[in-house]
Amino acid sequence: MEWEGIIKEYWDFLPIQKPEFIVSLKEGNTPLIRAFSLERMIGGGFKIFLKCEGFNPTGSFKDRGMTVAVSKALEEGSRAVICASTGNTAASAAAYAAKAGIKAFILIPEGKTALGKLSQSIVHGTKVVQIKGNFDDALNIVKEIGRRYPITLVNSINPYRIEGQKTAAFEVCDQLGFAPDYHVMPVGNAGNITAYWRGYREYYENRIVDSLPKMIGFQAEGAAPIVKNRVIENPETIATAIRIGNPANWKGAIQARDESKGIIDTVTDDEIMEAYRIIACKEGIFCEPASAAGIAGIFKMAKMGFFKKDEVVVCTLTGHGLKDPDASMRIAHVPETCPAELDMVIKMFGI
Ligand code: F0G
Fold this sequence. Notes:
43% of the residues lie in helices and 15% in strands. It contains 15 helices and ten strands. The protein has a six-stranded mixed β-sheet, sandwiched between helices. It has a four-stranded parallel β-sheet with strand order 5-4-3-6, sandwiched between helices. Ligand F0G is lined by residues 60, 62, 85-89, 156, 186-192, 241-242, 288, 290-291, 318-319.
């Protein structure tokens, strides 16, 4: 049977009333891949699984929330959506609005949106505007526009976004056959950690799983408002997706952390880029820098002996590496050029 997208697959858990308004690109059903090389490198005998959300239609987990938010917008008679974004929400909103045949307005921070995400947003025929400000400034502006005009806000303060994103937790449980001991992920605007925790709780309350994971989130050192317990006015990190100083779902993240007896901690940009390189070189998975924050966090916690033998750790890789080609070119070597001659090529390869 072909996968029908998260709304039809998890119908009983989602607030959609009118199937005729569903807007789907068959998102979800992303692979959960065991990271044997990482396990060997880190040691300690615990298991690591990667939930590869970059395999979604627009290359990030945002599609799960966007299918529900845009379907609900249509159901309620809306003809336009708006969002602020560090890039992935923008790409997803643009694609789902195109599919729905409605307008999308997108506001992004100038010069801080990865090239892949920017090109996705533009190609779908969306109106994209950049501000001389950061994500937090952009979110304040679109919230006001949403209040003044009949345009649906599709940032994760829209409750339907969280509803859709919780389905990733369902899938992890369905794929493993049980709930993991830990779920690790990057934290930016904090919608995703809120959503996963809700998903795990709903499966637990419906007795589909008989345990709950501890939720472990990581923020970049220069953009860590939750860890530092204060708004960061000028957040800075190479992981532009999580360059956020005042997360909209701050409370949801704290609740996920505290109810699950988990942790939200920081990782440095150097740690993020090292993890990014290792996942690509050792696991064959190309994710974007923000996604690698979770893996960097696993390295950090494992060094302190946090995870115990046989425990199961799931880490969400939130977005695809092709989103941010500049980041990969920064750490990769530039290919050398030689004449089109067999001997020269063999020499260049050092075979
Ligand atoms: N990873 C990626 C690749 C992201 O794009 C984001 C958020 C996060 C992690 C953090 O998730 O915000 O739910 O805590 N990107 C948003 C955007 C802010 O506009 O695309 P979060």
